[in-house]
Amino acid sequence: MRAPQNIEDLGVPRKLLEDLALKHFMLHGELSLIQLADEMRVNLKIADDLFQRLRRDQVVQVTGMASGVHHVTTTSEGKARALELLQLSQYAGPAPISLDDYVTRVRAQTVRRMEVRPAEVERAFESLVLDPETLTQVGTAVVSGRAIFLYGPSGTGKTTVAETLWQLFHQDPVWVPHALAIDGQIITIYDPHVHQAAEQPVPHEVDRRWVLCRRPRVIAGGELTIEMLDLQYNPQAKFYAAPMQLKANNGLLIIDDFGRQRVRPEELLNRWVVPLDRGIDFLTLAGGKKIEVPFDNLVVFATNLDPSALVDEAFLRRIQSKIKLDNIQPEQFQEICHRVCSEFGLPYDHAAIDHLINIISGDLTQPLRGCYPRDIMNQVMWAARYEGREPHLDNQAIEIACRTYFLSPEAQARTSGGVVR
């Protein structure tokens, strides 16, 4: 990722860079060439080259010198020209990279060839209580680099497992560009809400148009629509923001509560047949032109619905790793409760948890789910805080928490499939 030394090395049209520099001068009122270089994430030589061309065109002028560096502002002609450019596109950030450079970099740091070993999976998931077979399935799925289906009853930890997968990527940073230039159009990719700066130090002589980040993690739930999977054009700013799958490249893309989105499951999967199979996606510019970009995501579909009822067999075949997260056994339930109590600073009582298990399995005839320990302990803690006392785990506290958390047996008997009779 060595920094480009001249304009030709940047890989994007000179005219685009000159226009971008002129907008920076206009918007800031006055900039030194060092400041221009910082704004555009290029070296001083490139900034000076752009300035010299703009000065020859009489759209900028020197206002002074400091430490041998020009301070520059726009001329009246340059201001008028910059206003015209801003009407075409208000993008005024770092210099973009070319699509070819982006494709090369994404392929070089692909998520589809990650090397993961059992010890790393165990370490990443040590905060969860999972059986060895499930851990093996998860590790194998990650190594495949292909889409994963996590399914099973509600409250069994599918979302937590999906999000925890990101821990496997924690020490493997990737380069993310601020923006792409395609056919004169700008597409922003780096998003501080998605991309977290890596902890590793960045060498001084690197291309600053890229940001060294942890592998991204993007989560989409019920708000997902089919329109969100294409370029997001801002009609006021007149440039594009990347869709979520482009922002998630080289990382993790979680479709949570799959089947409950505003887009139908078959419509979503039809949209992603080629991306899931071939690792490429096609996005549409405002004029209708299609562009080919990498689709390099570890996609995780998490659902508590029956997968075979959501999509047909052909789609299920494309998602080759299907991992069921089921209800848990009493000993697993006890272990989760022990960990939650330790986290909450709540003295653990094995007998009280046995009583909780008897209430859930016997009185309520409910299966044991991984979400119950934290939810019940929260009820115990909240009740103690409300009453202004130290929390204590005993049969009475458990019974009160259960009466608040669970539907009564009578209510359960009146409810079938979520519809009250």
Short note summarizing the structure:
This protein has 19 helices and 19 strands.
**Might you state the CATH topology name of the largest domain?**
Rossmann fold
Note the beta-strand portion.
Answer: 15-25%
Task: Supply the number of helical segments.
Answer: 19
CATH H level, superfamily name of the largest domain: P-loop containing nucleotide triphosphate hydrolases
What is the approximate shape? elongated
Q: What characterizes the major β-sheet?
A: 5 strands, mixed
**Rg to the nearest angstrom?**
27 Å
* Category by helix and strand content: alpha/beta
Would you identify the CATH architecture of the largest domain? 3-Layer(aba) Sandwich
Could you walk me through the main structural features you see in this protein, from its secondary elements to its overall organization?
The protein is α/β, with parallel strands linked by helices. The chain folds into 3 domains: 7-92, Winged helix-like DNA-binding domain superfamily/Winged helix DNA-binding domain (Arc Repressor Mutant, subunit A, Orthogonal Bundle); 107-324, 3-Layer(aba) Sandwich (Rossmann fold), CATH 3.40.50.300; 330-420, Helicase, Ruva Protein, domain 3, CATH 1.10.8.60. The protein has 19 helices and 19 strands. Strands 4-7-8-12-11 form a 5-stranded mixed sheet. The longest helix has 16 residues, at 372-387. Residues 415-421 have low confidence and may be disordered.
